[in-house]
């Protein structure tokens, strides 16, 4: 199965759900068409993974991950069989190239493969390659801008093997960062004037890494990854209070921990998180022509940690908000609105994948 940047564009598609496989768990989101051209969140759910089943985006134990997918599908109640998945950005090489607009489709494929071989440090036999025509090139109307994406076949095949073993069909292989952008872009479109000329910095705080991307008028003008995440706080909670990692995650979200937790563990973590965000913003200013950010959005499981929004807003002096990828959507009968408020920020990638049903 090739990497597929645009396989669902412009087609009417049967039900499909987004499946986000991370080191800690698997998340599922299924959307349908709501009223007035809106979306409806039919269902969402997650299933924890055994430690070591997925490491740094690589599936290390196909059987354990397959079993978790089976449990998750059953728990969610979905009857859909088509799945959109994603590779971690670190496992995919992407490159924008300019090609002649007069090329036939067949000639374009040949040219893309030829160009790709210059940027990919592996034999082309070991790689799954796909491309998407973005539109006319900025400085030459007769040329086109093409995005190519490539990943090691074995990494894609591991994900596909899991899906097939669980009795499902892998329809789309996206890139995690692209899926997150798709979900955020929908939210920005809801802002006054569609967020025109506003600079949005999105911090997707994962367990071990924080992925940062900055958007202006629909274009990503900056992105990077930092080695920082919520796993550190979880590990501190496990060590200090003798809890399992799963218990620690739950109690971290709802604040159900001893009185000493705030001063001993939470405050140092919040200070550290605020410092990481401030550094990232400063790095953006020093490495680009831009000198402002209008809005910070926080997503990922850590985004809902009490006090995080306030300390980041205070230290950066920038408006900061936790962002729900489901904002403005209708909710299915089985979705608990109260629980969703806590869970939603962690489902950015899964939601972006689920949106691939609609193109």
Give a structural overview:
The chain is of the alpha/beta class and 359 residues long. It has a domain at 91-154: 2-Layer Sandwich (Dna Ligase, domain 1). It is 36% helix and 29% strand. It is built from 10 helices and 16 strands. The protein has helices spanning 62-76, 105-119, 153-165, 176-189, 231-241, 245-254, 261-287, 308-316, 337-343, 348-354, and strands spanning 16-21, 25-33, 39-48, 54-55, 58-59, 82-87, 92-100, 127-136, 143-152, 169-175, 199-205, 210-216, 219-226, 295-299, 320-322, 330-331. The longest helix is centred in the last third of the chain and has 27 residues, at 261-287. The two termini are 19 Å apart. Pfam families: PilM_2 (PF11104). InterPro entries: ATPase_NBD, FtsA/MreB, PilM, SHS2_FtsA.
* Ends apart, CA distance between termini: 19 Å
Give the SSE order as H and E letters: EEEEEHEEHEEHEHEEEHHHEHEEHH
Named CATH architecture of the domain at 91-154: 2-Layer Sandwich
Count the E strands: 16
Give me the CATH fold name of the domain at 91-154: Dna Ligase, domain 1
Range of helix content: 25-40%
Coarse shape: globular
Spatial order of strands in the largest sheet: 10-6-1-2-3-16
Rg value: 21 Å
Counted by DSSP, the helix tally is 10
Which spans of ≥5 residues are poorly predicted at pLDDT below 50?
5-11
SS-based class? alpha/beta
Strand content: 25-35%
CATH class of the domain at 91-154: Alpha Beta
Q: Average pLDDT across residues? A: 90
Describe the biggest sheet? 6 strands, mixed
What topology does this entry show?
Blueprint: E1 16-21, E2 25-33, E3 39-48, E4 54-55, E5 58-59, H1 62-76, E6 82-87, E7 92-100, H2 105-119, E8 127-136, E9 143-152, H3 153-165, E10 169-175, H4 176-189, E11 199-205, E12 210-216, E13 219-226, H5 231-241, H6 245-254, H7 261-287, E14 295-299, H8 308-316, E15 320-322, E16 330-331, H9 337-343, H10 348-354
Helix pairs in contact: 1-3, 4-10, 5-6, 5-7, 7-8
Protein name: Type IV pilus assembly protein PilM
GO biological process, one term: cell division
Domain SHS2: 16-184
